[in-house]
Give the backbone structure.
Amino acid sequence: MIVGILGGGQLAKMMAQEAKKMGFKVAILDPQEEPPAKGVSDYHILGSFKDEKAIRKLAEISDVLTYDIEHINVQALKELEKEGVQIYPSPRVLEIIQDKLVQMQVMKEAGIPVPRFIKADKDELVDKALEFGFPLVQKTRREGYDGKGVAVIRDKSELAKLIPADSMLQEFVNIEKEIAVMVARDQEGNTVAYPVVEMTFNEANILDMLIAPARIEEEIAEEAKRIAIKAVKALDGVGIFGVEMFLTKDGEVYLNEIAPRPHNSGHYTIEACLTSQFEQHIRAITGLPLGSSELLIPAVMFNLLGEGNGKPKVIGMKEALKFPGVYVHIYGKSVVKPLRKMGHVTVVNRNLEKALEIAHKVKKVIKVVGDA
Amino acid sequence: MIVGILGGGQLAKMMAQEAKKMGFKVAILDPQEEPPAKGVSDYHILGSFKDEKAIRKLAEISDVLTYDIEHINVQALKELEKEGVQIYPSPRVLEIIQDKLVQMQVMKEAGIPVPRFIKADKDELVDKALEFGFPLVQKTRREGYDGKGVAVIRDKSELAKLIPADSMLQEFVNIEKEIAVMVARDQEGNTVAYPVVEMTFNEANILDMLIAPARIEEEIAEEAKRIAIKAVKALDGVGIFGVEMFLTKDGEVYLNEIAPRPHNSGHYTIEACLTSQFEQHIRAITGLPLGSSELLIPAVMFNLLGEGNGKPKVIGMKEALKFPGVYVHIYGKSVVKPLRKMGHVTVVNRNLEKALEIAHKVKKVIKVVGDA
């Protein structure tokens, strides 16, 4: 069995490692000469995940296709699926998720709590904003990622901050915490939810510290898991999904958005859970039963964001590993860019607060910097 | 940093996966076209681990060398070490371990309890056997592996079973249990011992079920760990070591033999311990601090031994994964041979006896067979 992955980034790398463990071969499609997944997979097709020819080449040598990024050529995948190629999650899911407005509409129709929203095309943004009321959050329908394509408009005076693109305008929610749940669904429709985790974000709106399990009441955690599973079922998705949610100051849980793939907020599962999100994804897309998502030990995860530019150099790895329960993942990207995800660190400890304390210390000592 | 591994088998594969996780590159030296480690490493030098030229080629592109098998060219490695190449564990360790007689002598001198033994050269086997007394165990000094090179001589009438090779004759110990401890030692001399595990063997003397933790008294477990750590220190070894021991019917613990590498009896650490034996080995040989060996959940491991010959086919994987806590590793060897290690299965469960029960069921459903 050959697993074909559109994309060869860190998510593809970690998927590939689990696939190889289970004895599958792995083929990746990536435009870079040396993507992170290259050194852990069997075949590398050099090409864009938007290029239909390249995607077809990947499909020809693979028994099943998946992807590690949303911004790919859905039409090409839909064509292939019609021709009988197995693709998980289905391109239909990807199509829904690529358009944030459609994603919200589908979730709302499924009876999943989402913040109030309206459609606002590029040419009617100001009128719609005034009609919708402030404060509001603008999300462009497409290509948003890690905070890109999102604008917070507090009042009329900030209308100039509107991004000129077809968008969805969303009610500004008073957020107590941002939480997330990884949900796996197999080809028979069985689902497994991971523990609810809690996220803190930095100025650039990139994940800062991920805390597992989330420090919230049990009932709220159960509610969040119910919503996450319902959302994945509503999509009829197969594979692993990262479901991001808001916990409001009045204890309401709203769905924020869904990633149809392994997710940054699930990296902690490699060390802390019985079955990692990556093995779970490989099991689901290859038609195997899901594993247990049980958390064996509390964990805190943070990303190693690039500093500077050039060839990557890891600084402070030895010092970092002197702390107990520290596990370092370096993705092997060939070039550093400021804020680029170059790796991540997971800290496990029976005492969650202790893990958090260690994580903050480790974050000060380990860095991935450019040599230029 | 590039980690060079002599050998590209399953141990090299699992080492490589941890090295890649941590952002290192991996080069392997293996005579096969498609060894298990190939698909998860960056460079493959096609050649024998006994061929000095090939070993030198590997050393040239690597920053540190290690190996996944004992039967390699020690003289070549000693030469390279003299020239300043970093090799862990040191060839000196390998040299001691390659000769079972010398290994026992070194351990005895270090004050480690070993069964009574004498040297017996090929031409004096019968006389020495008669002098030593029965029952006895003959172990050839070199090339013994998975039960090869071992003969049990119960009395005079069985002298014909003696293997014609320079050997060590060892007292036949009344074994209650065969136990083992993985010990990691870093470049600063710090050691970490894993839990004591218990092994059952099949007729061919290949590991059948590995049980972690061993079902033995706490004091005996502590004694076994002390012996294992002492043995690795006596070798001045750096890396991970598999220390096999006998627990006698009168509660004595004797050292049996040492493997200077990740060991079959340590595979359970991937799922059940905080730091796997493979990550621990990579940390040690790259000069990093060791991780915790804490057991998070009891585990049982068994090997998937090949049945028949030809191209491998995995049967019953789906059925196997329907059982809770089951993790399947398939090594990706290109050819099946009877009793060849094609993969392994780890079963974890909060209840050890339950894990054992599930392991026996799973062993009946999953097989790796040849298509010829």
Observations:
- Chain A touches chain B at residues 13, 17, 20-23, 25-26, 39-42, 271, 274-275, 279, 283, 287-289, 291-292, 296-297, 314, 317-318, 321-322, 324-332, 343, 348 (CB under 8 Å).
- Chain A has three domains: 2-87, 116-171, 175-371.
